[in-house]
Amino acid sequence: MSSPTEALLDAELGRALLEAAQRAQELEHQQGRDLGGWADPVAWCRRDGARLWEGQERILRAIAEHDRVAIPGGHGLGKGHVTAWLTRWWLARPHSRVLLTGNTNSQVKQNTWHELKVCHVMNGWPGVCMEEEWRFEHDPTRQAFRMTTDDGDAFQGKHAPNFLVVFDESAGDRLDKLWPVVRTLITKRGGKIICIGNPTRRAGAFAKIIKGDWGFHVERISSVQAAECQRRRGEIPGVTDWSTIETWARDCGYNREGRKALLKWIKTEGTQHDWFRPRVLGLVPLGEGGGLFTPELLESACARKVQAAGPLIIGIDVARMGGDQTVVAVRRGQSAYFAMRITGPHDRQLVRIGEWLTDLKRAHEQENGPEIKIIRVDATGEGSAMPDMLAAQGWPVKRVHFGGKPKRPDKFKNRRAEGYRRFR
Fold this sequence. Notes:
By secondary structure, this protein is an alpha/beta fold. It folds into 2 domains: 24-225, P-loop containing nucleotide triphosphate hydrolases (Rossmann fold), CATH 3.40.50.300; 307-423, Nucleotidyltransferase, domain 5 (2-Layer Sandwich). The protein has helices spanning 4-34, 41-47, 54-65, 79-90, 105-122, 173-182, 205-211, 223-233, 245-251, 256-269, 276-281, 295-303, 346-367, 385-392, 415-423, and strands at 68-72, 96-102, 128-129, 133-135, 142-146, 162-168, 192-197, 217-218, 308-317, 326-333, 335-342, 372-378, 397-400. The strands form 2 sheets. Strands 3-4-5-2-6-7-1-8 form an 8-stranded mixed β-sheet, with helices on both faces. Helix 9 packs across helix 10. The longest helix is centred in the N-terminal third of the chain and has 31 residues, at 4-34. It is elongated, with a radius of gyration of 32 Å. The model is unreliable at 30-36 (pLDDT under 50).
């Protein structure tokens, strides 16, 4: 049992430690006010030793001015680096918390949180940064932590007067699932939510955010902008080497085959390729999953009014078996439509198609209707007999082998791929 003297000394020591911690906290808060306070995070971070490029500065200023900010951007921009400095700036105020989350646990742990730990060590930031939490011994009201989960209930109770939520890789499915819960974390005044990522999808929560549907301020950052800044200023912390597109791809983690494919896409498709747009320019892809026909292209085609002119070009896709339908399509100039869809045995289908072709020929001869120029028939597999039977009846038939060799084997795998490209 301690003596009264020892108890008094312990009490005095405790008070001294508490006063020292409070003075340290007040000193840091005063430093924040002296450096322009929290209104200008760029000046605050610069004074604290940050080296930021223009894109990162725009991100910080946008976050200071808006409560909801979306940051679509390419690879190698230093998004993890600026997130670390954003966290440092936010935690300079009392009663503040930062939640770092994302689409996958490995991405948050190995990229976002790893960059935070590196910056914490390299810049001598206060507090203790552990595997899942950054805490301050003298001020338990300030905390940063990482968490990834599909369970929205796990976010319950994670509130603070000044709460910052940073959602990395926002284009993934997890933001779609968690958005109804995540947005409740910042209902109080002083809360902010930041969504960062490559806009690789046209659908989902992040795509809606970028479109402006949910009241977010959008600050788009392009890797090309980072490259231009790097050429002027030299190496920038957190930004990938942009001396050439190949070094950029290498430093972003692409293997040799991936870099070759990337260079080929850029040469053949240009910078509007659906791989290039979200990962370099920070733009939403024109199609979903690299589709050949974009929604905008299909909508414009449906809205376009064209007149039918010239001879008839007929295409027949022969059904294989079961409930499949044989489809007959007609094109005249730029106008095209489906003429019929039929099922049943091939001999019965041939009778119906022959009768229909005879009607078209009679209309041409007697009523000055359009002439049948050519009939293209799918001659693959089960449909190989159809063109022979039509040709025997005297119709101008051309067999099409969609799996056959294309006219441009250097660009296309087969006739099917080549035909879709020409159709586009």
